[in-house]
Amino acid sequence: MFFFPLLGAFALGMIALVVNFFAGAANSFSYGIATALLIYGCCLVDRTTIRSVGLICLFAALCTPLAADMQPGPDGGLYHFAHQRWIREHEIIFGFAHLHARYGFSSFLEYINSLLWIGEAFKLLSYMSALYFVCLLSFIYFAINSKNNFIRILALFIGINLLIYDGYFIWKYGYADSAAGLTFALSILAGLYILVSETRENECRASQLSAFFMLCAMAVALKVSSILVALWAVFVFATLLWRKQISTRRIPAILAFPAVFTLLWLLRGVITTGCLLFPVSWTCLTVPWHAKQEAILYSDLVTAWARHPHTGRSSLEGWSWLTDYWLEANASFLIYLSLAAVVIVLLAAMAHRFFATTRLQPAIAFALVGVIAVSLILWFLKAPTDRFGIGIFLIAVPVIALAIFGAPMLRTGPHLRLLSFILVILLANGQGGFSIKGLSTFQMLTLPQTELVAHPVFGVHGKNPNDFCWAAKDCVRSKNLPAPVTRSGYLFFEQ
Fold first, then answer.
1. Quick one: how many helices (H) and strands (E) in the chain?
2. Domains identified in the chain, total number
3. Please, what sign has the CA dihedral across residues 279, 283, 287, 293?
4. What is the pLDDT of residues 44-59, one digit of tens each?
5. Residue-range definition of the domain harbouring residue 30
6. Does 489 map to a domain?
7. Sorting pLDDT into bands at 50, 70 and 90, what band is 202?
8. What is residue 408's three-state secondary structure?
């Protein structure tokens, strides 16, 4: 049930993605389809679902102040809002990354948020950002009250992790980092929940598996660095096939919608950048509008910036950046991360010493720890800054500790429901929560205005070279923009 809100966000983004192949996404057709899907979903709910949705709405209410004063952040002005405006008002553009290389990164969040503008006000974008945290709270609550002991203790340890250090997230509604990190973590957790479920029937619910695969595809589309969740999805699927918990006749129904979305997302990447997964340069194709050089350049720039933002590309060579800057700059983060790790490992070790425990099957434990370990290695090598590792830091230590020591047996009862609800309240408050002080800052969110001048080739850009586009119409930042060509009503920016 915890992923209901994410599936709603997925549906909204899917509508914008499909419509944008033919027109600007912000039109009456898009909103009509979204409204029809909402009505259809409401007609399908049963009494159990209504109770679950009611709890999720309660958790969302606890997080209202988190969204109330959320600010856009500089990345929003640099490219996110301008990108959303392009999606809202223009059909898909061939070679879009040539207008601004960061448009090539193109998080799926841009498509979701493109339908949430209210004129030139952006309050709904802040609520969408907070929605991902609401889903985490929902997972913690439902998992602690579930029948599976391992999932119950894992959720409890994740909550403890967040209580010790509540600074994992970056709450800016112009950023995609928290949304991507939380979706990555929830995808891993959803797959684990399916694997350790006590239901040993031959037929896993097709809708549950399809939702899991959509969640994994969404995680990769939100941020390409979540690509390892695809391997986790393959492992979950193969394990269920080996157990004969999926009949082969149901595979097309399970994979149809996630496969269609994946193909559309890859096609979008080829059209906008010439690459299947920008900025992974080896996925770039030899099409006239490809942005392979931009992919190589910006992949290196992200790594260099994350290692040492003040030395340019020199940090790409050697390891001096580690002692010259990185350890000192990230000292506070590393201390809290280590503290949380020590507490969780000690709790797991003591529970193993004094209580009976349940363990993961060796194959599942090996695959799960392997995905997490490789994710941590890739994070450290390619983008070692805290905002790019949110999802993995959230679950790494709890998962590894329980994979090693096992989960202590915890008796079910009303005390668990009370414990889970208190934990959710504490976690919500830790991120901005329900305080009156937070509510008092509620305001309608708008964006700064930039003085613009005509670009010599196409569109407009800031009067000063370092000015952000914010939400300006037809704003570009590339200095060497190729002249556009129009073919069959579509803009092409070719090299």
1. 21, 6
2. 1
3. positive
4. 777 777 888 888 888 9
5. 4-439
6. no
7. very low
8. strand
